[in-house]
Structure to design on (524 residues):
């Protein structure tokens, strides 16, 4: 093999780059395309319909998503005269980048040579990076100069006050139980079937509902509710930029799912990473991705069952019921640590 | 009479356990339907609903029964039916003279069926389908010749005629019925 090709391969599998581009962008995009198809088919199944069908009947309408993607790619991008152009264009792009950036802080293996960035506080860094992107949804709504966009952005701002604390407390209960902010140590502590989600279901439930609130999943699809505000903060967008907006929301949910899989569902744990690229990096990351995909499927299944809460109902539920649940989960984690299970 | 004010009372909220139970029940029903789907979608070009004989579909003229009274054109609320002047040869006497014949413009027709109701000799009748394809707008303005023939029904050539019935256990069910050309 010539040295140039081996150098290129070394650059491609350099952990930070591989993690951001392949595990943060390309693989989640594939999962997202599958999840959108699954969401439509599941909602149709439960609601006595068939769902996407005519584009490719033999594989249950699987090519419909590719057709939709092509349509978004080649649609004209309309920028209205009244918008503030620079934030209007930049906000969805920055939101997309900030949605996938937390992946860099998440280790997918216990093999230290394949950590993207080795650090002792990776859980806190990942959570901090995740919480940045809603600001740019509000910026997009403000820059659109449209009443629906503004109302959508403000609804997002209201919801931040509802979910931020729930997500933080429920994820940090893992640190309370295991005594570490390092995701590798948290995953390794769950070895042997001691999954935190099984021993502490309260924190897992609070984290799931917090993620649904944060990514406007279905019972809480409040900032983009079609019947009230046309598409929320994304009303004025069209074409590929609108696709980036929608993709950023799904990618954010995917990143949250990966974090839940790492913190509560044992990460790569049925499998023990060995040396080398394949057994030390590729297979553990695939195990984590399978867990995250199953979580995404559960999230999208809720679309078929639930209607939408009002904004005040969502805030009411979040503060009256889910936040005490998260605090109870934190207490349960302290009890687990006191009993010496971890 | 003075207005009586009714005091609006807010019903007491459900407790946390009832709320939790309601959510679990909703998800359980969703899971049940997910694993045992009961679909009732009509896959349209491959299946079509066989409509009843009295359905108010497209309108056909039987020129042999028509007495040229013009009632259909007069009653038409959308002014879709109009009268045109065409020569007519009486079979008994052999004389040829001009008469007024009804033709319809489907650009305007609202399928109310007044013309069929008002016709004194039942020269107009409905066909029981409504999914007909026209290539352009000029074709929708019928001539006297095309108005006397039933329009072509393309879905009947390709599709399976079905009808919805309400089953006591399964709910809305599609049943195949007789008819259609396939």
């Amino acid at each position: 093999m010539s040295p140039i090709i081996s150098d290129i391969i070394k650059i491609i599998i350099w952990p930070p780059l591989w993690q951001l581009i392949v595990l943060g962008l390309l693989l989640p995009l594939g999962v997202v395309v599958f999840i959108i198809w699954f969401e439509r088919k599941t909602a149709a199944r439960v609601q006595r319909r068939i769902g996407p069908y005519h584009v490719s009947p033999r594989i249950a309408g699987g090519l419909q998503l590719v057709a939709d993607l092509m349509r978004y790619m080649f649609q004209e991008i309309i920028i209205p005269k009244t918008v503030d152009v620079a934030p209007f264009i930049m906000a969805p792009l920055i939101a997309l980048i900030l949605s996938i950036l937390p992946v860099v802080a998440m280790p997918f293996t216990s093999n230290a040579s394949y950590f993207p960035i080795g650090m002792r506080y990776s859980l806190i860094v990942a959570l901090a990076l995740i919480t940045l992107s809603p600001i740019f949804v509000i910026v997009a709504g403000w820059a659109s100069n449209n009443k629906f966009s503004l109302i959508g952005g403000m609804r997002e701002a209201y919801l931040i006050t509802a979910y931020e604390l729930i997500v933080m407390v429920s994820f940090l209960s893992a640190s309370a139980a295991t005594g570490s902010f390092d995701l590798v140590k948290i995953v390794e502590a769950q070895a042997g079937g001691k999954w935190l989600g099984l021993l502490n279901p309260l924190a897992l439930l609070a984290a799931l509902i917090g993620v649904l609130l944060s990514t406007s999943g279905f019972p809480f699809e409040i900032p983009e509710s079609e019947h009230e505000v046309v598409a929320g903060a994304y009303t004025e967008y069209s074409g590929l930029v609108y696709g980036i907006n929608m993709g950023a929301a799904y990618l954010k949910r995917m990143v949250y799912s990966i974090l839940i899989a790492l913190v509560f569902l044992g990460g790569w744990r049925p499998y023990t990473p060995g040396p080398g690229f394949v057994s030390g990096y590729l297979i553990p990351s695939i195990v984590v991705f399978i867990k995250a995909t199953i979580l995404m499927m559960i999230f999208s299944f809720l679309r078929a069952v639930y209607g939408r809460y009002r904004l005040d109902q969502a805030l009411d539920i979040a503060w009256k019921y889910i936040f005490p649940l998260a605090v109870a989960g934190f207490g349960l984690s302290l009890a687990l640590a006191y009993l010496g299970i971890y | 009479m003075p207005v009586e004010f009714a005091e609006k009372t807010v019903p007491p909220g459900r407790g946390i356990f009832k709320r939790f139970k309601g959510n679990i029940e909703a998800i359980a029903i969703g899971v049940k339907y997910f694993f045992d789907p009961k679909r009732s979608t009509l896959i349209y070009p491959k299946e079509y609903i066989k409509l009843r004989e009295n359905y108010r579909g497209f309108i056909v003229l039987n020129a042999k029964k028509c007495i040229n009274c013009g009632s259909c054109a007069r009653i038409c609320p959308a002014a879709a039916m109009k009268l045109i002047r065409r020569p007519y040869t009486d079979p008994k006497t052999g004389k040829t003279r001009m008469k007024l014949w009804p033709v319809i413009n489907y650009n305007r027709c609202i399928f109310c069926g007044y013309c069929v109701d008002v016709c004194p000799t039942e020269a107009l009748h409905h066909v029981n389908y409504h999914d007909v394809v026209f290539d352009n707008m000029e074709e929708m303005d019928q001539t006297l010749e095309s108005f006397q023939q039933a329009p072509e029904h393309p879905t009947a050539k390709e599709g399976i005629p079905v009808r919805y019935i309400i089953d006591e256990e399964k709910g809305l069910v599609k049943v195949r019925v007789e008819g259609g050309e396939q």
